[in-house]
């Protein structure tokens, strides 16, 4: 993001950014040219968190450099090579090897799940990579398919995106009150803030194996609250496709981190499966040696004396979702707990750690699937007054698929603040397509969003209309973009039920006068639940352009990415 287009930005006097190739919750990845060595590299631009105070932002930047330098020391064939860490305009940039190939998430999306042998091959590579990282004191903390690359031609598995990694002894974002990571792949002890360690990465790998085998994480639910409850409390039901590797999956998804399967054991079990077609049972605890010559470490960090802590006890499972398999895999066994209140305490801690309102999430657990009246329809009051989201509030950069909001308010805005100026027209990032709209513009939208014109507004809806991207083009109005947004904000309570936390900021977009409006509201129905809206209005070429995205409050990070990409890639094409 920035005022300069791709191909014009030179970072640290050496790396010329050429093309944006990806975007995640922590930053933007560029294809770049190393002007000194004459080679192609990948440059990750770590975007600032506008919600952090200046002191926290400075500490975050310092921590990023410290931990990135630690990752630079890792040398493993299945870990991305980090060449350099530089800073420009007080923003960190990671310079990495450029992998010719897509992510594991892309592969699953395009070609479907893989068989057990391929899942075992991927698992072995990642376990070996994690063992090296953990031995060096580096925790990844965001293991998921979007952060695993598959190199074209060689099928080499490469673990990437250590952007939120933790180095032993370093202060973490979690410790300053913000949750980082992807909830569907986050271990319960991390979710509840009790502890974090190498075992947490191994839980994430267990969830990843389920995803590559079935196409979906076993913890996927319709809301953030549902995901957190599934991770911390629900029965864990591995997919039927995981049956060949079930001892590994069960071992990695043990809620008790002290009983969780270690990297060395899991790797040995997967290798045995590839060699024999059968997965052996997990070794017993404690570890005192094993089939490997010279003995085997049964748990990463296994030098500590095994404890017998109070186990994590699951509660009632979710109702079935869709057809029940003819031969379902049995859920992981329950362990009774003499303190039934433990699960409730863990769930509350997890919700608090994720920076959301526990009450709001539980009340609206089934209410953010887009089932209510979409914004901008003729039946909603929003279509009768105002401009932009006030006139159509059904409006808002790994893969990932499972975003976690930060901040501690019921209506979070973790990446609040006006979008940075953009020249527009950038190439669509991975997972997006460029929509050439007949209304006279083009922009990048997620691949599964569909176009729905509604009067003078054009919408692009996600499946189920959970996310709503809207565009409106009108003649200039008095006061310009700022006046339009201020009038819309003033009418917010009448056009957006439960309107609150609204603010309008003067900004620019592509060098043009602009205004940014952000607010939270209750949605058009109780079933729809609370929503958050990002809206950018600017004047260009004698017309007024309005782009907005609306989403459930539990999905604001993903919504902000959709919004930023739409605004960044928006281009006027003419009718």
UniProtKB/TrEMBL annotation:
Tell me which InterPro entries the record gives: Kinase-like_dom_sf, Prot_kinase_dom, Protein_kinase_ATP_BS, Ser/Thr_kinase_AS
Q: Where is the Protein kinase domain positioned along the sequence?
A: 15-274
User: Which residues does the annotated region (Disordered) include?
Assistant: 280-336, 370-438, 474-507
Compositionally biased region (Pro residues):
320-331
Taxonomic superkingdom: Bacteria
Q: Which PROSITE patterns match?
A: PROTEIN_KINASE_ATP (PS00107), PROTEIN_KINASE_DOM (PS50011), PROTEIN_KINASE_ST (PS00108)
- Which positions bind ATP? 44
Compositional bias, Low complexity, is annotated for: 280-290, 376-425
> Which UniProt keyword terms apply here?
ATP-binding, Kinase, Membrane, Nucleotide-binding, Serine/threonine-protein kinase, Transferase, Transmembrane, Transmembrane helix
Q: Name one GO molecular function term.
A: protein serine/threonine kinase activity
- Give the enzyme's EC designation: 2.7.11.1
**Enzyme class at the top of the EC tree:** transferase
* Record field: transmembrane: 341-363
Specify the protein name: non-specific serine/threonine protein kinase
């Amino acid at each position: 993001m920035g005022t300069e287009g791709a191909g014009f930005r030179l970072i640290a006097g050496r790396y010329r950014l050429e093309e944006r190739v990806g975007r995640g919750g922590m930053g933007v990845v560029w294809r770049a040219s190393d002007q000194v060595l004459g080679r192609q590299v990948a440059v990750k631009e770590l975007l600032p968190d506008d919600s952090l105070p200046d002191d926290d932002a400075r500490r975050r930047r310092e921590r990023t450099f410290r931990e990135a330098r630690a990752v630079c020391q890792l040398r493993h064939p299945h870990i991305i090579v980090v060449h350099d860490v530089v800073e420009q305009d007080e923003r960190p940039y990671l310079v990495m090897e450029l992998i010719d190939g897509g992510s594991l998430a892309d592969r699953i999306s395009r070609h479907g799940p893989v068989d057990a042998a391929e899942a075992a091959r991927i698992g072995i590579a990642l376990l070996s990579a994690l063992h090296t990282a953990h031995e060096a004191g580096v925790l990844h903390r965001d293991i998921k398919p979007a952060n695993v690359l598959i190199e074209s031609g060689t099928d080499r598995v490469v673990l990437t995106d250590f952007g939120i990694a933790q180095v032993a002894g370093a202060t973490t974002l979690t410790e300053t009150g913000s949750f980082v990571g992807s909830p569907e792949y986050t271990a319960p002890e991390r979710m509840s803030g009790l502890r974090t360690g190498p075992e947490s990465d191994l839980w994430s790998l267990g969830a990843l194996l389920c995803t590559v085998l079935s196409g979906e994480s076993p913890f996927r639910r319709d809301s953030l609250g549902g995901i957190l409850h599934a991770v911390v409390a629900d029965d864990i039901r591995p997919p039927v496709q995981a049956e060949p590797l079930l001892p590994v999956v069960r071992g990695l998804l043990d809620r008790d981190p002290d009983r969780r399967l270690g990297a060395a054991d899991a790797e040995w079990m997967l290798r045995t499966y590839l060699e024999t077609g059968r997965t052996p049972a997990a070794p017993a605890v404690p570890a005192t040696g094993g089939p490997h010559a010279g003995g085997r470490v049964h748990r990463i960090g296994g030098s500590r004396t095994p404890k017998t802590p109070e186990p994590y006890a699951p509660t009632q499972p979710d109702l079935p979702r869709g057809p029940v398999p003819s031969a379902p895999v049995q859920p992981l066994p329950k362990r009774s707990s003499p303190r039934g209140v433990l699960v409730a305490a863990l769930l509350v801690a997890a919700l608090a750690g994720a920076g959301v309102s526990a009450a709001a999430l539980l009340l609206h657990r089934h209410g953010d699937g887009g089932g209510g009246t979409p914004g901008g329809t003729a039946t909603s009051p929003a279509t009768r007054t105002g401009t932009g989201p006030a006139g159509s509030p059904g409006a808002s950069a790994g893969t990932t698929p499972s975003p976690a909001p930060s901040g501690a308010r019921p209506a979070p805005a973790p990446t609040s603040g006006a979008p940075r100026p953009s020249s527009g027209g950038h190439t669509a990032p991975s997972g997006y397509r460029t929509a050439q709209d007949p209304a006279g513009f083009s922009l990048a939208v997620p691949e599964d969003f569909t176009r729905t014109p509604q009067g003078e507004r054009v919408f692009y809806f996600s499946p189920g209309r959970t996310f709503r991207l809207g565009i409106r083009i009108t003649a200039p109005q008095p006061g310009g973009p700022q006046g339009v947004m201020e009038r819309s904000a003033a009418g917010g309570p009448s056009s957006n039920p439960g309107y609150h936390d609204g603010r309008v900021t003067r900004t620019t977009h592509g060098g043009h006068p602009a205004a940014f409006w952000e607010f939270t509201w209750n949605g058009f129905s109780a079933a729809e639940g609370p929503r958050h809206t990002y809206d950018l209005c600017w004047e260009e070429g004698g017309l007024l352009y309005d782009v907005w995205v609306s989403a459930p409050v539990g999905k604001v990070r993903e919504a902000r990415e959709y919004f930023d990409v739409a605004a960044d890639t928006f281009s006027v094409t003419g009718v």
